[in-house]
């Protein structure tokens, strides 16, 4: 089975992991500092806080904003559930707004219509690696006194108008899951240019521990002393995984370039098919193309999906609208509230997309997809 996503590991990654394993550090140590510096440089901001997953990055980011009970977070339903769940875990109320029909990204106009006096954060998701309309969300956040959070789980390596994703929002979160644009096996990061947000993020991911004597309430307790002033969790990324991440970052541009080649090949292969809709690239955006979301006839999507799987092509669907999950249903959310997102979901199939795809693999996917479209009913 040809998977829809796969990590790209080479000997430099293996050597980096082995060197870290042979060092004096397994958990937080010099490799974490090195990785965070490299991620911050790639994002074009001063601060990167590494964590154990993309979900942890979202949780840490929401904690840094201070959202809690009584606050609202406006976001998209066309995302993995963690984008909304992490806000809900902080006690905030999640308000879903509809998406742009072309990109699948949160529609700035729909987001603005969903803003109330209780809204504290607007969270856009770079669906498939396409950056959100950052200028529109920046304007919305500034006018309404909100924080703009960009869930860039799909888009490290993407740029918008020449600026890297990571430098566009108040806070940006990355995921380093194996299928993402680079991997640390499991991992993520929060990046920001804001010193205060970075400090709160770093504290929350390390139990809320205060080791700076100048900030402690009881600094004379002893040289061993540390305090917790606000609750946090242990989301520390180990040194061995950070070492892999630094190695991977050195090849990110090559990964992004190959993804672009695969995307272009798919586009060319399917351009003559009236029954499908190809992924959209907005003007000024250079996406890293984490996914290739092909939209097919909704009434045949399942048959096409099953045909492709039967042909050994491991397609996926991204994503069930977040509020369709029973956990949100049980909170009173109902289907139908974001019809554009639901329509996008009903037609979407993610074709294989990763740097290790060979030209022969791409031809195999194209042939299988055209066969499925012609025969699956």
From TrEMBL:
Source organism's superkingdom? Bacteria
Q: Which residues cross the membrane?
A: none
Q: Which InterPro entries match?
A: DegT/StrS_aminotransferase, PseC, PyrdxlP-dep_Trfase, PyrdxlP-dep_Trfase_major, PyrdxlP-dep_Trfase_small
Return the SUPFAM superfamilies for the record.
Answer: PLP-dependent transferases (SSF53383)
Q: Which cofactor does it need?
A: pyridoxal 5'-phosphate
One GO MF term, please? transaminase activity
Answer yes or no on keyword Transferase: yes
Print the keywords alphabetically: Aminotransferase, Pyridoxal phosphate, Transferase
The UniProt entry's sequence similarity note says: Belongs to the DegT/DnrJ/EryC1 family.
In Swiss-Prot or TrEMBL terms, this protein is called: UDP-4-amino-4, 6-dideoxy-N-acetyl-beta-L-altrosamine transaminase
């Amino acid at each position: 089975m040809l998977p829809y996503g796969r990590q790209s590991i080479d000997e430099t990654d293996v050597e980096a992991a082995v060197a870290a394993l042979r060092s004096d550090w397994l958990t937080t140590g010099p490799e974490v500092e090195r990785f965070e510096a490299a991620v911050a440089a790639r994002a074009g901001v001063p601060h990167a806080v590494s964590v154990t997953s993309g979900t942890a990055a979202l949780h840490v980011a929401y904690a840094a904003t201070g959202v809690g009970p009584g606050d609202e977070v406006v976001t998209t339903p066309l995302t993995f559930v963690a984008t909304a769940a992490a806000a809900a875990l902080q006690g905030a109320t999640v308000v879903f707004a509809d998406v742009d029909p072309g990109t699948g990204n949160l529609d700035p106009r729909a987001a603005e219509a969903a803003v109330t006096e209780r809204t504290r954060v607007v969270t856009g998701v770079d669906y498939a690696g396409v950056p959100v309309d950052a200028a529109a969300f920046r304007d919305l956040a500034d006018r309404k006194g909100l924080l703009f959070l960009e869930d860039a789980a799909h888009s490290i390596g993407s740029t918008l108008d020449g600026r890297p994703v990571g430098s566009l929002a108040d806070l940006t979160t990355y995921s380093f899951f194996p299928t993402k644009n680079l991997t640390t096996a499991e991992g993520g990061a929060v990046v920001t240019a804001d010193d205060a947000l970075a400090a709160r993020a770093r504290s929350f991911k390390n139990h809320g521990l205060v080791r700076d004597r100048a900030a402690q309430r009881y600094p004379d307790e002893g040289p061993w002393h540390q305090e917790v002033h606000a609750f946090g969790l242990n989301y520390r990324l180990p040194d061995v995984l950070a070492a892999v991440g630094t190695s991977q970052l050195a090849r990110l541009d090559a990964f992004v370039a190959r993804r672009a080649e695969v995307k272009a090949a798919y586009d060319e292969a399917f351009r003559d098919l009236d029954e499908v809709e190809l992924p959209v690239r907005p003007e000024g955006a250079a996406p890293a193309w984490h996914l290739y979301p092909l939209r097919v006839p909704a009434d045949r999507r399942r048959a096409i999906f099953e045909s492709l799987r039967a042909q050994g092509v491991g397609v996926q669907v991204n994503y069930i609208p977040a509020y369709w999950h029973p956990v949100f249903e049980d909170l009173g959310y109902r289907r139908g509230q974001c019809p554009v997102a639901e329509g996008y979901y009903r037609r979407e199939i993610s074709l294989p997309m990763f740097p290790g795809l060979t030209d022969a693999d791409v031809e195999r996917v194209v042939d299988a997809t055209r066969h499925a479209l012609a025969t699956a009913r």
